[in-house]
Inverse folding.
């Protein structure tokens, strides 16, 4: 996970981490790519939490593109599988089944949006030639808030290409998300169906079958995300306490 610029992101990270260790039964390393100052705000203690520090990130664009540096981080090089999570997530069931999925050398993400109906350009419709979209059998896109992938040459190159493109393009309100979607389509290297059984957007049902509950709004809008996450986490804790021991 990545955490830069705003102290409020540490509040979100704390809730995500609490849910990860309480309900997700986490037994894998958790890498937090962040600044020295924000790292100090993470008070949840676990030997599994590792910090990768970068104090040079100063703009929102750089912060949003930080996840594209995943393969440049010293601590990620030993992993076979990597699960990237945005901070606006709560985990409500054991996370191990996601890592147990048999995956290929492609990007696995959660379905969200469609290139044919992407009028707000949240998923990069403007990046594609209209004829290209018309020729697609499946124009459904995905959120980049949850990304599962292998540590392999194809994904290393994919993230490198996305990083170089995202940092040189003109401003886009969704920053690197359209770039990631654009290259995933061009390279035919994504699956946005498998994770639908494991993750869901904007669903506050504590009894759902999904493991990951993602609460996306607009980029950087922690004012709307924090209350939703807090309410959902409180309900989860109350549900846990209500269960017979």
């Amino acid at each position: 996970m990545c955490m830069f610029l705003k102290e409020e992101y540490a509040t979100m990270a704390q809730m995500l981490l609490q849910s990860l260790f309480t309900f997700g039964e986490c037994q894998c390393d958790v890498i937090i790519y962040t600044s020295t100052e924000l790292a100090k705000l993470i008070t949840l203690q676990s030997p599994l939490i590792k910090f990768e520090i970068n104090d040079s990130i100063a703009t929102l664009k750089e912060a949003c593109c930080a996840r594209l540096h995943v393969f440049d981080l010293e601590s990620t090089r030993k992993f076979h599988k990597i699960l990237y999570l945005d901070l606006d997530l709560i985990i409500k069931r054991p996370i191990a089944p996601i890592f147990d999925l048999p995956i290929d050398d492609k990007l696995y993400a959660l379905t969200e949006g469609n290139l044919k109906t992407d009028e707000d350009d949240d998923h990069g419709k403007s990046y594609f030639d209209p004829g290209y979209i018309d020729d697609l059998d499946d124009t459904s896109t995905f959120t980049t808030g949850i990304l599962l992938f292998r540590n392999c040459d194809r994904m290393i190159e994919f993230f490198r290409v996305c990083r170089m493109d995202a940092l040189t393009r003109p401003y886009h309100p969704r920053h690197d998300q359209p770039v990631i979607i654009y290259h995933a389509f061009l390279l035919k290297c994504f699956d946005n169906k498998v994770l639908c059984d494991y993750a869901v957007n904007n669903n506050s049902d504590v009894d759902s079958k999904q493991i990951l509950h993602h609460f996306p709004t607009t980029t950087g809008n922690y004012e709307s995300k924090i209350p939703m996450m807090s309410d959902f986490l409180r309900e989860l804790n109350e549900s846990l306490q209500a269960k017979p021991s």
Remarks:
- The mean pLDDT is 94.
- The chain has eight helices and ten strands.
- Residues 43 and 182 are 37 Å apart (CA to CA).
